Amino acid sequence: MDLSDLKVFETVLRLGSISRAATQLGTAQSKVTTRIRVLEGKLGISLFERHARGVTPTPAARRVLPYVARLSKLAADARAAARDDGVPRGTLLIGSLETTTALRLSPLLPRFASACPHVQLTIKTGNTTRLLNDVLEYRLDGAFVAGPVDHPDLHQRPFFHEELVLVTTPSVRTKDLAAIGPLKIVFQTGCSYRTRLETMLMEMGITLSEPQELGSLDAIISCVSVGLGVTLMPRGVIAAAARDGRVAAHALPPSRTAVETVFVWRKDVYVSSAMTALFDLIEFWP
User: Fold this and answer.
1) Which of 27, 81, 94, 173 is the most buried (most CB within 10 A)?
2) Average pLDDT of span 127-148
3) What is d(CA 263, CA 2) in angstroms, rounded to the nearest whole number?
4) 10 Å Cβ neighbour count for 51?
5) Burial (CB count within 10 angstroms: exposed 0-12, middle 13-18, buried 19+), residue 227
6) Do 178 and 246 fall within a single domain?
7) 3-class secondary-structure state, position 28
8) CB 99 within 8 Å of CB 236
């Protein structure tokens, strides 16, 4: 099978339309149709059901899809390995928790750009579940997520240790929580710290109302500062807001608040000089 045919197949499946796929690929719709039919002929199966609204992938197409990403990544790794002379270069697409990006990676990025000027580093933020899925599906070279991670297809390497603190409006003291009625927790959608805080508060006998899910750290801090809820965050992330008196940070038992951030990557991918350089910079960062 031709990798370019597989790319066309993946684009049509993702967009659900041959015309939209042609637009994204910068080619004629007739050429996309021909490439799909050629691939179907090679496989001896139908990949799409055609209808007025576009196309729908067949069950066979969905079974083929995971191999497309794997084959594309394998080809890219082969090219990278052939060209890798030990000098960091090329692209590096890394995922990270937003808290890790803000607290740990932001100070490192200028140094990495200076040390590795031929590397195009891109950081994509998300929650642990989404980032792990993106790594497993070859959409990311690796990601910083909340550990530990136990998956047979992934390597993991610990890098950062964080102390989580309970964050409230300054007018609230920890001992007052049970007395203020149903408590709303505020998190980003899919946050890995949410279950930890929910369990802790319920064990304290605190009734929880429907959680508020927000899209950014700034929005969460603003929401907490005016008393609309509480959250759990690394101490360093809210240090400035606490110093300014916008929020209060409450220390909790280490058994509940010690968390390790690990870097994960697939076991079957090539670890480039660019990724090794990133590892080294983080490892020796004071």
Assistant:
1) 94
2) 91
3) 33
4) 8
5) middle
6) yes
7) coil
8) no
